[in-house]
Amino acid sequence: MEVVEFLTPSNVVGFILLFTRLGGLFIMVPVFSHMSIPMTIKSSIAFVFTVLFFAVMPPLQMHITTMNIVLAIISEFFLGFTVGLMLQLVMNIMTFAGGQMSFIMGFSMASVVDPQSGISMPIIANVLALLSLMIFLSLNGHHAVLLFVNDSLQEVPLGGFMLNENIFQYLMTATMHMFMVGFMVAFPITALSLLADVIFGMLMKTMPQFNLLVIGFPIKIMVSFVVIIATLATFMKIFAKEMQAGLNALSIVF
Fold first, then answer.
1. What are phi and psi of 248, to 5 degrees?
2. Which tens digits make up the pLDDT trace of 82-128?
3. Smallest Cα–Cα separation from 249: which of 90, 139, 129?
4. 35: Cβ–Cβ under 8 A, 6 or more apart, which residues?
5. What is the maximal distance between C-alpha atoms in the chain?
6. 139 φ, ψ (degrees, to nearest 5)
7. 62: left (phi over 0), alpha (psi -120 to 50) or beta
8. How far apart are alpha carbons 18 and 153 in whole angstroms?
């Protein structure tokens, strides 16, 4: 009898909207959106967290009609999708930088499937993407996402999220920042490539028998790997700083 009394229209609609918010979040947020996790597992995880957060969910404030429910579901999905997109823009910094490095080193054709996104990408970009995922976990980013969900329940009522100018402005700025920081991370390899091309060009002028394909490219690749290993800690430090800033910026949706 108590269960029947608990299943009021307000509670049922609130549970559906909360499940939609978490579902949209898990589609895009790193770790939770991993392609190797089956969709049934993701749905089950979203359902479990919905049950947990339902205890702290404030009372539903919307008038329950069919149109309002549909609009509220769309609103909740966009909330989770927007937060996930904000974090993915930060994750793509290292992926973009890795793609630039692979192209310069001649590894653009050496592609493997990224387990995070399920798409084919250069091997250097894949390695940097996996390291970035480890940095995200070391920063307790998955915990920060769950804490954000708890805070959002108090700041953004269910069905009350709306895209505003500040969010669009942040997404455009974050996209430009992604390319800028990605170029900055890949700059050591880019500068090394330009220097190597100048040196090899001078050698070919003074020594016409110098075979660039047989001798030059292996040397270029070997030196590039040495530079990547020497600067990898700096890359990860830059990414950790950017990810921390991205996690702090999630409050912009409030």
1. -70, -25
2. 888 888 888 888 888 888 888 887 776 656 555 555 566 777 888 88
3. 90
4. 115, 116, 117, 118
5. 93
6. -85, 5
7. beta
8. 9
Q: Which residue has the tokens 């016409």?
A: 208
Q: Which helix (H) or strand (E) holds 122?
A: strand 120-122
- Identity of residue 17: L
In angstroms, the CA 80 to CA 21 distance is 5
pLDDT band for position 1 (50/70/90)? very low
DSSP annotation of 121 reads: E
Among positive and negative, which fits the CA dihedral 236, 242, 248, 253? negative
Q: Looking at the whole model, is its pTM more than 0.85?
A: no
The two tokens of residue 72 are 């509220």
Other CB atoms within 10 A of residue 24 CB: 23
